[in-house]
Design a protein that fits this description.
The chain is α+β, with helices and mostly antiparallel strands and 295 residues long. Helix content is 48%, strand content 15%. It is built from 13 helices and eight strands. The strands form three sheets. Strands 3-2-6-5 form a four-stranded antiparallel beta sheet. A two-stranded antiparallel sheet has the order 1-4. A two-stranded antiparallel ribbon has the order 7-8. Strand 7 and strand 8 form a beta hairpin. Helix 1 runs antiparallel to helix 7, helix 7 packs antiparallel against helix 9 (189-198) and helix 10 runs antiparallel to helix 13. The radius of gyration is 23 Å and the shape is flat. The model is unreliable at 202-217 (pLDDT under 50).
Length: 295
């Protein structure tokens, strides 16, 4: 099919224009009748409205740097020691979630080898508590390497190319627009898309495209732990849950939507701490969502 060949050519070219490739993919999915898959394409094109829905490949680690001075010394973009911070604080200050449109990220990749993103000075007392008290902080920034930005583009490009190459092997070159929709159902385009774009870890909620279009990532423990922190679960509780989930990996019954024995034991232990039935139901719902069992 000509449109598929065009997308492959763009993605495989030395100067790949990802925005153009995504727009053509959007057209292709419309032709295939796969509108439920457009959420990801639109989010990559326009940016992610919800920062919590930003996929892992758009999250990169940064260094916190600052400029400060006293009567005798001046430092510019100097790394700040931040290991005194708590885990959640460390994550906040050292992980950037790039929710920007693909065109913005492509433009960032054309900048200098080192990029800086400002941090509010109100964070100075927390970040610089281990520095000499005579130093006056003039600015705070997140520092990332250009190669990290390029890494985001490479991930998007590679995932999209995997999807397009997979379907190109199953769709005849001379297929008509009339027949491509039925062919898409026959080859299970949704499953191919899921495996290529999200490594198989996604639940796609299909409905009226103009109303409730959403993509719910499963097996996302970071997102699960954030939700469970609302129910007075501490870091030890969450670490125990993480280990329980790992230990249940090979014995969990997805067909019957049944938790493994380790997660069941964890829930039993937590129930002695959390007496509120509403809270326990919410925790169980969070686990069901994590496993991709919520409809």
């Amino acid at each position: 099919m000509k449109l598929i060949d065009e997308i492959i050519e763009i993605l495989s070219s030395e100067n790949c224009n990802l925005e153009n490739a995504l727009i053509k993919t959007k057209i292709l999915l419309h032709k295939m009748g796969e509108k439920s898959l457009l959420t990801w394409v639109n989010q990559e094109l326009n940016g992610y409205d919800n920062i919590e829905s930003v996929p892992d490949y758009r999250k990169i680690h940064n260094i916190v740097v600052g400029s400060f001075q006293n009567y005798t010394t001046r430092y510019t973009n100097h790394p700040i020691p931040i290991m005194h911070l708590k885990d959640k604080e460390l994550d906040f200050f050292t992980i950037i979630k790039f929710s920007d449109s693909i065109s913005t990220i492509e433009n960032l990749s054309k900048n200098e080898d080192t990029l800086f993103f400002s941090l509010e000075l109100e964070f100075a007392p927390l970040l610089t508590k281990n520095l000499d008290s005579s130093l006056n902080v003039t600015n705070l920034k997140r520092q990332v390497a250009k190669s990290q930005i390029l890494g985001i583009l490479t991930q998007i490009r590679s995932r999209l190319l995997d999807f397009i190459l997979d379907i190109s092997e199953m769709i005849p070159e001379d297929i008509s627009d009339k027949n491509i929709k039925s062919k898409s159902k026959e080859i299970d385009t949704k499953e191919i898309f899921k495996n290529a774009i999200f490594d198989g870890n996604i639940t796609i909620n299909i409905g009226d495209y103009n109303k409730n279009k959403s993509i719910q990532i499963k097996n996302d423990f970071e997102n699960l732990s954030k939700k469970l922190q609302n129910y007075n679960l501490n870091s030890d509780d969450l670490e125990d849950l993480r280990k329980s989930i790992q230990e249940d990996t090979t014995i969990i019954n997805h067909k019957e939507k049944a938790f493994g024995k380790n997660v069941k034991n964890w829930l039993k232990n937590i129930s002695t701490k959390i007496r509120d039935k509403v809270a326990m139901d919410a925790i169980i719902d969070g686990l069901n969502e994590f496993y991709g069992w919520l409809s």
